[in-house]
Amino acid sequence: MPFHTPRAAQPPGPRKRTSLTGALLAAALVGTVLALPQSAAAAAQTFTVDLGTTTGAVLRGSNGALYGQSDDGVPGDNLLAPLKLTTGSQKPPNGAQHPNGDILDVAPSFFRNGGGTMYTNIQDMYSDWPYQNLGISDYLTKVDSAVNAVKATSYADKVVFVPFNEPDGNWYTGLGSSNSSTYTSALNSFNADWSTVYQRIKSDFPGAKIGGPNTANWNSKFFGDFLTYAKANNQLPDVFTWHELDPSSLANYRGHYNTYRSLETARGISPITVNIDEYANRRDMSVPGQIVQWAAMFEDTKVYAQQPYWDIAGNMDGNTVHTNVPNGSWWFWHWYAGMTGQTVKTTPPQANVQDTLQGMASLDTSRKQAQVIVGGSATDSNVVINNIPTTTFGSKVEVTVQALDWSGYEGASAPPQTISRAAYTPSGGSITVPLTGLNSMSAYRITVTPNGGGTATAPSVPFSASYEAENAAITNGTVVTQATGANYSTAQKYATSGTKDVGYLTQSDSKVVFTVNAPSAGTYNLRIFYGNQNGSPSQQALRIDGADPKFVNYPSTLNWQYRSTVTVPVSLSAGSHTVSLAVTDPTLGTSKGQVTLDKIDLTAVPSTSETAYEATFADISGSPSYSYSDVGETGTGRLVMTSGDKATFDVYAPTDGYYTVKTDYSSAGGSTALDLNGTTVATYGSSGGAATTSSTKLYLAAGVNRITVSPNSGTTLNLSDLKVAGSGDTTGVTKYEAENATLAGQAKVQSDTWASGGKNVGYVGNAGGNTLTFSNVNASAAGRYTVVIHYAHNDRAGSGNYNTNVESRTAQLSVNGGSATTLTFRNTYSWNDYWTLPTTVSLSAGTNTLKFSNSSSWAPDIDYVAVAPVNG
Questions:
Q1: What percent of the chain has pLDDT over 70?
Q2: What does the pLDDT look like over 801-823, one tens digit per residue?
Q3: What is the pLDDT of residue 776?
Q4: HEC profile for 452-505?
């Protein structure tokens, strides 16, 4: 297994932070003996998992989001379905608080992708924050409008109406007062209005579910008094809700929860479902090592919980990048969605202490799997797993460790990297898995499965190192401290690696120079974490060792601190190098705009690019069985399937293009189908019971693609894994520039230096005659084709609150004059930043037409479309 340079051997210059992927378990996880020095073992902290003590069925309750969706299609189905969302909160029909996120607009996509229960804050009918208080009579008209509109839908029984949102900060501020008379007055006022609105909702919709009181803060006195009143008046909420929005909640929440349950017990109230329907701070969003601390608390107490809407609607509160592209924390929720069976008792090194190693674990005896997810600490840790049942796992187990790093709010993330596979023979039912070189912003998953025979292939872990901008050589730039967890105000700043970045790089000689070390000659990916709020893409001049200058382009971000990433391949010889990012360059001239720099990652590019997805951890339907008689290449055995069983893999593509999808399996009987995003793209015949690999070349869109393997009638399939190889080949892809298409009505060609060919087409839509038609789209054969639309737009609405109210645009796409399909285009933050939206269409052999229109509103500016047959 590759091993990073030890910290003591780091070259002089800016301090580098070596990621876990290069330092974890290099020698320790090679067998059943843990070869840790005694001093290292003594220094490590311990996280204990007890598989012998179950704590209830896995709930997966904390994956909800407030305004996580903005429109049907934002985020896309491929990002929603894998998360198995339990709850979500959106505004009521025609609510004025935000320009998008209407429950009637997004509920169809929420529910078709397996969503559980949707909540709506009725007070979001008002436009201002805090809400306008126009009297209870005015509010009742809004209650009627919201409830009756939802009541008319097919999913009304899956909606919870929340009458008051943060009443202690809106209309009833005295609820938090220490003055008894002020508090009593506010309590009486709230209770009276609760009764009035509760009765009105039930009058409008007798079957309605109601949530509350939904305070901004934990308030045991008010909760007790409210429960007493609501019980006496037979008006208890169906779901008890409040918010935990302070970093101290990581220490205090469990105490709050226990106190709440005691308040119920003291009043003879049966336990009410709890939803902490806003939790965490800006610095937590997008950060796997932070989110795991919150999710572990809520899973431990078996409550539902929703991430907060601090910034924009439509990105699942900081978990998605573009419509179809995940960031690092999306993969954390993907891990969480994959936990099955029962949760088990865990004991962290420090209980109820914020920003420490925390985690959760599960045991599924039917699948013969145990999972442990931890994160939040940079301290070396031993994960001790006790009471491993031999009836489930046998005498020997296979342990796989994966690492999931922070990629920024808007940095695309590949799946978690497998960094270790090893066989263990439990001693007294226990094993110890050492984790070293941890990053506090990262999360880690340990899976345990039976080892019934064979040896898994050791994972290839490329060299990777991180270098902080604040530790580099800085010329005319300023180091700025960003988010910390000290208190609410600092935690409300944005997440930043090392809590600092370098900004104000505005002078002609401004630059940041990193000293990096390459362990061997080769190609490396230089990944730059940055922020850009100039209103258009920005540039910096990149020089390696003072030579080979080139511009690095930085797309816009939501704001200066809302981290994204760009990756530039560089060739390095073995040894020390300087990496300079400067505002100007004597050879290239002046760059455009400015950026804030956070850090750079330097990662060796593997000689072959292939990602393996284990079948036994796929998203399954039907009733397959799990076989571990041979651990196979990936260490986790095989999925045994028959007709009616399906295994869905969430496959990541870093760029649009062709990849080779390989299926490792054996089968007997009939054939096996391979589906891409719901459509069959290949059929494999029987292997006669022999192990084989079938390959299919498929066009995958950048981001997540759902690939399903399912045996057809009469087939028994033993599925080991699915592999995806390649880097996005574009051979066979045809590009059609919008400026060369047919324009009608007001549609016109516009100049833009950031567009392909320096031009785009705008003013499509807002009337039926303003159209853009690509009339010469050629298809060599009839079939399914992927169309990737490159577009830009930056519609924003006025704000009466602290959110950035970005809006989406839509367009109707008609193929060969047929029925139009509506596509939704997420905001790109500027009119000069071009994002992509993929869709799949059926084309006829020969020449085809693709027509974009919108009779009611403007479509986005369109740069070009790329068209490719799905099967390469």
A1: 95
A2: 789 999 999 999 999 999 999 99
A3: 96
A4: CCCCCCCCCCCCEEEEEHHHCEEECCEEEECCCCCCHHHHCCCCCHHHEEEECC
- Quote the CA–CA distance of 631 and 801 in Å, as a whole number: 54
Q: 709-734: buried (b, 16+ CB within 10 Å) or exposed (e) per residue?
A: bbbbeebbbbbbbbbbebebeeeebb
Beta strand pairing call for 381-386 and 431-435: antiparallel
3-state class (DSSP) for residue 553 = strand
Tokens of 78: 């491929």
Beta-strand pair 159-162/117-121? parallel
Question: pLDDT at residue 17 above 50?
Answer: no
Cβ proximity of 833 and 534 under 8 Å = no
**SS3 call for 332:** helix
Two tokens, residue 639: 């999925």
SS3 792: strand
Pair 348, 357: CB distance under 8 Å: yes
Q: Check residue 30 and give its pLDDT.
A: 28
Q: Could you please report the per-residue DSSP string of 16-85?
A: EEE-HHHHSSTTTTTSSS----HHHHHHSEEEEEEEEEEEEE---GGGEEBT--SBTTBS-HHHHGGG--
Give the length of the chain. Answer: 872
Residues 198-234: pLDDT tens digits?
A: 999 999 999 999 999 999 999 999 999 999 999 999 9
What's the maximum distance between 2 C-alpha atoms anywhere in the chain?
82
SS (H, E, C) 340-376: CCEEEEEECCCCCCCCCCEEEEEEECCCCEEEEEEEC
Dihedral angle sign, alpha carbons of residues 838, 843, 849, 855: negative
Residue 31 pLDDT exceeds 50: no
Decide: 707 and 670 in contact? Cβ < 8 Å: no
Degrees, nearest 5: CA angle 151-152-156: 45
Cα end-to-end span (Å), the chain: 35
The Cα–Cα gap between 863 and 730 comes to 18
Q: Among 428, 407, 408, which residue's Cα sits nearest to residue 416?
A: 407
Nearest to 610 by CA among 785, 415, 766, 350: 415
Nearest to 5 by CA among 523, 419, 19: 19
Mean pLDDT confidence for 566-579: 98
Rounded-to-integer distance, Cα 363 and Cα 342, Å: 5
Give 608's contacts (C-beta < 8 A, 6+ positions apart). Answer: 725
Q: What are phi and psi of 155, to 5 degrees?
A: -110, 20
Long-range contacts of 29-38, Cβ-Cβ distance < 8 Å, separation of 24 or more: 29/399, 29/401, 29/420, 29/421, 29/422, 29/433, 29/434, 30/1, 30/422, 31/422, 31/423, 32/423, 32/424, 32/425, 34/432, 34/434, 36/434
Core vs surface per residue 611-637: b (16+ CB within 10 A) or e = bbbbbbbbbbeeebebbbebbbbbbbb
Model pLDDT for residues 846-868, shown as the tens digit of each residue: 999 999 999 999 999 999 999 99
Report pLDDT for 607. Answer: 86
pLDDT the model gives residue 713: 96
pLDDT in tens, 555-571: 999 999 999 999 999 99
Nearest 10 degrees: Cα torsion 660, 613, 60, 307: -50
Residue 24's pLDDT is 36
CA distances to 485, 558, 559, 566, 810 from 478, rounded to whole Å, are 22, 21, 17, 21, 41
Q: Supply the DSSP symbol for 508.
A: T
How many Å apart are CA 362 and CA 56, to the nearest integer? 10
Report residue 33 CA to chain centroid gap: 36
pLDDT digits (tens, 9 = 90+) for 482-498: 999 999 999 999 999 99
% of residues, the chain, pLDDT over 90: 93
DSSP character at residue 170: T
Alpha carbons 442 and 19: distance in angstroms, whole number: 9
